[in-house]
Amino acid sequence: MGEYVIKLPDVGEGVAEAELVEWQVKVGDLVREDAVLAAVMTDKATVEIPSPVDGEIVWLGAEIGDTVAIGSPIVRLKVAGEGNVKAGAEPGGEAGAKITDRTTPTPSPAGASHGSRPSFGPPQVGGERASAPQAEAKPAPPLPERASVRESEPVTESPSRLWGGAGGTAVDGGTAPLAAPRPESEKPLASPAVRLRAKEAGVDLRQIRGSGPAGRILHEDVDAFLARGPQLAKVSGLARNEAVEDIKIIGLRRKIAEKMALAKSRIPHITYVEEIDVTALEELRAALNKEKRSGAERPKLTLLPFLMRAMVKAIADQPNINALFDDEAGIVHQHGGVHIGIAAQTPSGLVVPVVKHAEARDIWDCAAEVFRLAEAARSGTAARDELSGSTITITSLGAMGGVATTPVINHPEVAILGVNKMMMRPVWDGTQFMPRKMMNLSSSFDHRVIDGWDAAVFIQRIKTLLETPALIFVD
After folding, report:
1. pTM of the complete model
2. Residues identified as active-site
3. Is pLDDT larger for residue 221 or for residue 322?
């Protein structure tokens, strides 16, 4: 028997490190060659790490959310052959490794909770894990004497002070904690007079902790409860939830957080909202979708391909909108090719697949590429180059788009167009109100390199093209 160490391989793209986003195994698992052990993320591409050998997992070298250097040991297996390291050798001795001792298995990947973090420890020879020394148990501190109530002794403390013993010591002049609600089947101990008084005051006795013998509720207890205010006195069985869940931000969610923080901290946004009448566009779209051509299978047209073609035409007049701003070098890279990012929501979070060279695509080609990229993004099969390289972005929430939004620019781009929801509204045509399909475009621009006037001219040109959609097809 031997031991085999698997190091984080070079996942390409010239990266020096990757974030561990998922474990598919835990200590003690038997794995076959080519079985997926883990998944790591670089930028927005996720790469699976397979096992090159059969064996038993005896050590895992990172936790979910850790950033691991390329070449660092991440898994140690017990194998039938010689292996590639000395049995019992410290994994942390490998150059460049990021190692933390672990003594308990990592959580399973599906539904794993990251609220508690296991400790690490390298395995002993034979695959047994070393146990960490247990901290010496300390006796719990005694309850304060003032919180102790004996049936044989009269109660001399006020109820608010007595309550401190069970739910934490009450500070003089402070507010005593609410009692945990009793079960429906448990009847509070109280005299008929106390019950009548509580009923008249609208107080649920199950919410009051009694200070009398055996927890009996006294008039003083009701007084103290009412003194804390009517909002607590009439909760009628409702209880506070003080739970706090700690959720570590990892993987794609962390990448999104970093990208948004970068954009909002470095780009002074100017947002321009315009109303567009898309009635004629919707009629044209419906007619084109009904048209059937023999031998030609065309994708279903949505609003996006028309907007993409309108953007291409507007950019031809204002090429400064289709650019990337390197604010550290002070250079604007103005692109001839129009590479439109389409912000898409996936089960993993927000990604931006990119339709490359929209200027060279017609309406149907744009529609087909948007559909293909959206499917790849949702299934997690999109390649890295399909999720990068955009020069301008569209963001749309469809029917959830709201009346107006303030889109965040996809740094280092200088513009983003936000599509809001379409609504039928009455519009005055000069003689009468007519039902029209209306939609807002909410667009943001980098005010360091795009003036408000230029932003307005760009959106007004798109408005003209969408309201008179025949112009989109005129070269």
Report:
1. 0.62
2. 447, 451
3. 322
